[in-house]
Amino acid sequence: MEKQLEVQLEEAGYKTDEVSIRDIFFSVEKGKLVGLIGPNGAGKSTTIKSIMSLTPYRKGEVKLGTEGNNGTYAYVPEQPVYYDYFTLWEHLWLAASVNGIDKQQFEQRADRLLEKFKLTEQKHHYPSSFSKGMQQKLMLIIAFMLEPDLYIVDEPFIGLDPQATLDFISLLNEARSGGAAVLMSTHVLDSAERLCDTFICLHKGTIVAAGNIEQLREQAGLTEDHTLFDCFHVFTTEAVDVIEC
Ligand SMILES: Nc1ncnc2c1ncn2[C@@H]1O[C@H](COP(=O)(O)OP(=O)(O)OP(=O)(O)O)[C@@H](O)[C@H]1O
């Protein structure tokens, strides 16, 4: 299967003399959803930020796109980022125009997504007046509007209401069936268990387990009636050998 993202991070951190994550090696194939899981402070956001070259220190390599073909990506940060003086619609148009989407295609995609996320009425409002969940939806709408080869999403579920969560999942599945790859960090393990093909479990800045749910159960020494949460508990509370992925 073709890799859309290959991560070979030896070390990364917020200062040159401080290593926050180390030995993070994994890949995401076309059409697959890889879940980045781990407790608070495990290094999920740092991994994502260093993939995006947003950490001051990074040693290692990140390859984006398939063999001989640079891929496109959309990054949805944990904290929404917006301009105070642009309306919702202006944000979408700005993102579309810098990414070369023509006006007709932009309007078609943007209107469909606003409808889906129930923000049509707020089209000409300023995101600074939005709730956290509505700002999160703005970030997701931009990502889906760009229809990239790869989605990198940092904790999408916190802040979204149940209907928006379902809408987000259905759009994600639609993008995957079109061949898009997804890397998603989350604490919401029941959703992750249902959605993700494979998991990277981080603890104390490094990978402690990786694979699909069956492989995680095996690595945790658990039987098939155990959930992702049970595996997570084993990997993050007991001394485990670091398992190569
Ligand atoms: N801006 C920063 N400057 C310095 N250290 C940071 C910064 N952000 C995170 N860290 C440190 O890096 C380590 C990993 O944090 P990170 O935010 O990646 O964890 P996380 O798994 O995303 O946690 P959470 O689930 O709480 O979001 C922690 O020790 C944290 O204190």
Q: Any overview of this molecule?
A:
With 245 residues, the chain is an alpha/beta fold. The chain folds into 2 domains: 1-72 and 155-245, P-loop containing nucleotide triphosphate hydrolases (Rossmann fold); 83-147, no CATH class. The chain contains 8 helices and 9 strands. Strands 5-6-7-3-8-9 form a 6-stranded mixed beta sheet, sandwiched between helices. Helix 2 (88-98) packs parallel to helix 4 (132-146), helix 3 (103-116) packs antiparallel against helix 4 (132-146) and helix 7 packs across helix 8 (228-237). The longest helix is centred in the C-terminal third of the chain and has 16 residues, at 162-177. It binds adenosine-5'-triphosphate (ATP).
Describe the structure concisely:
This protein is α/β, with parallel strands linked by helices and 245 residues long. The chain contains eight helices and nine strands. 36% of the residues lie in helices and 24% in strands.
